[in-house]
């Protein structure tokens, strides 16, 4: 029989304290749905009354499997819990559970609140009792608890006892400024339990200011706490909160946690974790961080040649878990340290089956190495890598030939005396024995100048004769440029991400001292890859 | 008397296993310089012989305060250490220390290497003895040690003893696949020490696959290990290595580490940590992650209203350390009082003294906000920020006016039937009432095309009349381009770093949908800033 370990998600409340993050009501509902499917026990939805979005969210929120929780603060001194309008706004949200933050650090009581130590204890007691009288599950968030306990353990514990005796289901120990190390958290939680607060009523709330919020949460669980508060992707004030996206797989897949605890997240739900993490990035319009534990795109990427060949023999050699358990997957990228086994695997991913020992493998590796020394990067630009390999394997049709191009960028005053820019590109290609001249300018449908690369992309894709229909659904979605060292000279590397109507997305690379040339090379690769994928015949 | 704790940096070797990371030799030298100034004890420079960049790096590397270390692997079975060419390439780099990775997990010995357990022990012994005979400091990287120890502790320990008895200064316990939790690391390190391997000879090498590499490193130190291996910004294979940028401040500022250990990093060097972290991101052309412990731009950002007002009363309420200790700074919402005092400090940095309460402060804040919403970034481009502020303060002379420009990029076959590119730029300025037309092309002294921005920079700086002598010593040293969101449209942001003969280096920013326009704007700012600094009169 496993012991229950509770997961409390505060993405919608503390997570929203992240710089630049502000969820809309609709986004909050999407996140609630994902959290509920994942199987967390509590969802903290926000602070009703603190802002219009949070209030609107609670008005609309439907039934959830998880216990929906409203956040607020203990009543202020000098009025009763029943007559505190801030507290009333919180309880009026009607959630089954309410979490109230309060002070337990004597210094904060006197400095930040400016009230007596006894008044603060009374505020905690009366607020929790008020929630209980309303029939709500009460949680008490003990702000700055660890610092408070270090400064004045008697007072900090007395505050916890007020909440407990007033009927709080949970006492949550918060390391509000994130400065407490895991070994201290473990020791203090043990002391709190020894002082008579049951571990089954204790929660832990950590921040990542020393990059140890996950370890600190586990230290508290090791010491006896039975609720973990955290956020998806570790969102939160400053360096963020404890990252549930990292904690959940560890709790389900690693010992002693896996055998000992039941978290409410099933093995099946865990397979959706990577998708949940990416969905949140999508809502935030962020590029997902690659090196994130368990769910990052690089979490199971094997770049070193020695690692990659061992992985082919047995994945457990360099993988601590099977990537599919968290809905992630293995990546064996190309780099100048990669071996032939790595290369064959990558070619297979591109649908190119090459026999072991084929001399083309060595040629491909040599060309990749030489090109990377010039500044190319095939780790990211899988489509350009595939074209290079196809060329060495004699499987790259020449669909068309670019004879020349010219781009002009001009900036001058228009007739209204405003400075305006316009770019024009001419591309000359030979396709099916026929010479085609195309010209485009950089103006978009709204009359805005989109620059020379845009003009060039349009001119190149304007008339490719028999192939035209295949590239009509292509579009350039991202464009990254950096200056790098190619041999002894600084060169420009351009990576272009393209997308098509079938939802395919591919990356190509171009390198040149001339940024327009580098861009054109990457554009050409993007078009050629698309033609191959769509099965064009040369 | 404090005990010595050694820091071993592997940014240049294991850090380069990060997907998409490939340092040039010049970049490696810049990183070595920063690490040496920071005060780490060992710098692992790469694997000599594994690729041309690493070999070139060791050929050129000069004297460092830190012990320069070459990485390689133990000799292969069936040949002597003296006759192993892979090992010879490593020792031939001539570094004072050499770190060799070898197997200690019986399963890997038989599966990945396919040799007998005894042969593997012999490979370790003979390789370390060979290094010692050559007079080098020997380090043995025990790959997969924790998994190996769990599977077969006797064999894993026997491998360590081979290295130790052959004269290895350090035995580094590696959690290669990143799956071992801190409590297991602590327990196993204790057992290894109890089995007779002295803690003073033990190093720890962790990976961040469960987001606990930092905690795992500290657990090993708590158990007695005295060397920590890690990387700047936590670069590394998969989820990265232990992040030295987070570990170093914890070791220097937090107990029991601060009182107990001497790491070689001084309090003064620690103040450069944020700058080192940002420099590495700059080399990688990455947007620095904001929520990173200690050095992230949000690490001391206080968004919650309650927090921000408490911070004004007493910063220790929500800050676990003083941000300046790691060279970072506090960020409070621009809208309030503290926002304005921040701004005044930044203006003072630029030599602009503005009185408290000056209405220009609010105007500058508004313009910065509006421009940042369009895609500008004044965090990095201090020189452009200064020009913006000067404009609001009425302290920006108009040295010259750009009337128009035109750039042409052409690519076609030359008379030898090779594709060649050439760019040409015409810039028309009005300076001192006189109109000046300048034209330049993108060819450098060696006959190579350097692209349109180069042509434009040359044309702009070709004839500025009375100011010409002041800009003759300017040169463009770096050029970064990123696609970003400006309002609803994707725009291009260009950051240009310039340098002059007096060793000054400054950054300017330009934003436009058109990359050439964005570049031109940043170039113009660079010239104007230089003229102000050199005291040009309009």
UniProtKB/TrEMBL annotation, chains A, B:
PROSITE patterns: AIPM_HOMOCIT_SYNTH_1, PYR_CT. It is an enzyme of class 2 (transferase). Residues 5-271 form the Pyruvate carboxyltransferase domain. One of its GO terms (molecular function) is (R)-citramalate synthase activity. Pathway: Amino-acid biosynthesis; L-isoleucine biosynthesis; 2-oxobutanoate from pyruvate: step 1/3. It holds the Pfam family LeuA_dimer. Keywords: Acyltransferase, Amino-acid biosynthesis, Branched-chain amino acid biosynthesis, Isoleucine biosynthesis, Transferase. It comes from the Bacteria. It catalyses: pyruvate + acetyl-CoA + H2O = (3R)-citramalate + CoA + H(+). GO terms for biological process: isoleucine biosynthetic process; L-leucine biosynthetic process. Its EC number is 2.3.3.21. NCBIfam families: citramal_synth (TIGR00977). Belongs to the alpha-IPM synthase/homocitrate synthase family. This is Citramalate synthase.
